[in-house]
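User: Quick one: structure for sequence A, then sequence B.

Assistant: Sequence A:
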Amino acid sequence: MSEILKATCKGKSTNIECRRPSWESIKMSYATINNEYKKGAAEAVFKKIGGEPYKEFVNNERAITIQNEQIQQGIQIAPANRRYTLNSCALRISYALNYSKLLGESFLLKYKKLPSNTGELKYENKRWYGSDGNLYYLSIYGIRNFLTLNWGNSDKPYYLRTFRDRDEVAKFYNNEFSKFNRSGIVVMRIKGFVDAGGHTTLWNGKDKHFEDFEISENYLIGNHNVVDFQFWELKG
């Protein structure tokens, strides 16, 4: 769902559809959840949100413990079955969206159009509900598909920027995106990121940095195999 504003000038009226929350409100809520990460990494974020996401985190950590014990006993675990601590990037962007503001009201993902709760990948579009009753995603696919469904295709000039190799990723950041002066949500697919599928965060076009720079590395400097990159602008 979107919000409708009616603008009137000289006796004539027109409706303006507002779909995206303000930049300042999402930046503020993102900073709030990132502060939880500073206290205790991903576990602190999952615990703060609680509900189904935290239960999944706890179950996954138990599985990691069991696997580590098996490895110590000489049991081999296939790479495809290895468990790792869950990435919190999509969870944090979900939180930022839920607690951002659109025309003074909370944005709240659960009341918007939602992608089908299915997918071939582990967490893809799966919906998770926190202890606050709000909807969250654990993968960048859920975030990407939600944004596309509600806001349309990602914005030019980064509708879908693809990369052949790490060198091309680094050149893109150093020569182009690091100078980009618009703010918004970025989503990037990264090869080898099994659970989250990649990384999602906020780009601050005024200060020229990612808003999670204190707790996350910059995945665009050429150390990772970024497959593609998208951007949705936020204003106000």
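Sequence B:
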Amino acid sequence: MIRTTKRHVLGMALSMAFLPLTALADTEQFSVSMLLAGQIDDKGFMQAGYNGLVAIGDELGAKTSYIDGVAPEPELLAEALRTLAADNPDLVIAHGGQNNQAAEIVAAEFPDIKFVVVQGAVTGPNLSSYEVLQEESAWLAGAMSGLLTQTGVVGHISGIRVKPGLKGRGGFYNGLMHTNPDAKFLTIFAGNQDDNELSYRVASQQIDQKADIVFTMLNAGRNGAIEAMREHGVKQIGNVRDWYPDHPDVFVASAIANVSIAGLQAARDVKNGTWQSGTITRIGLDNPDAVSLVLSPDVPDDVRAKLDDLREQIIDGTIEVSVDYDGPELKP
């Protein structure tokens, strides 16, 4: 199921808050452009976004283009979005919540083009956001960590402080507290998603404090954390995709949040005329192709059964996933 939340645009009449729901004429070639504030081969979040763009071309027959490798600074992101919009595509997708501010600015400059932020939190008269709920699979990952930790110390590592990352951290923490309220939680936002020397250092810092399971929300910088954990026999939980096949000696699970589905769904909605501006569409555990916790074969059956039960409780609303965290943070 895909859940959509409508947001009215302040200062505008209701009739202007949503673009007309008209499908593209069959004679027009559908065109989609994407901005990726990172590397399309990072084996993580940015590559998933790029995979979504490839799927848009394959499934929808769309003409596609993209810009990648842009530093996550609002001015640079805005300039890249302007470059994409200048070609007048039907849809511009800004992949990542770091684009929130830039997308609001540039969407206002190009009112006839539809804009979407993946993992975003912004809306406008020609702007919507699509969010794959990383916090739901992260909550389950935290719950699993609470059941499996031997030292009672569990860690979390991320790079930049974007809203989806903060929500993922909060979900993980609250899942941990649900199954093991006495556990010690270590967390850091190191400031960079792609720096392997940095991730090695901060992972080693948490290992020195006895963390035996660490949840990483990184992009191209994940290899440094993998190396540190391999050296010390510490288990890692990945995100975005399943990391166990690549490093079975390190990964105990992966908190899947297949963000490629968000961009693809947005493009489907635009092409078939169901897309609405002024909305945030949320995709969670009730869509297992998008959000799930994938376990390594080493996870015991009793833990698997407990996690299956917790998953169902999240889906049916018995458990409300909190993303709040106001505890201490480590420094890089």
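The two ends are 39 Å apart (CA to CA). The chain has a mean pLDDT of 92.

User: Thanks, that's what I needed.
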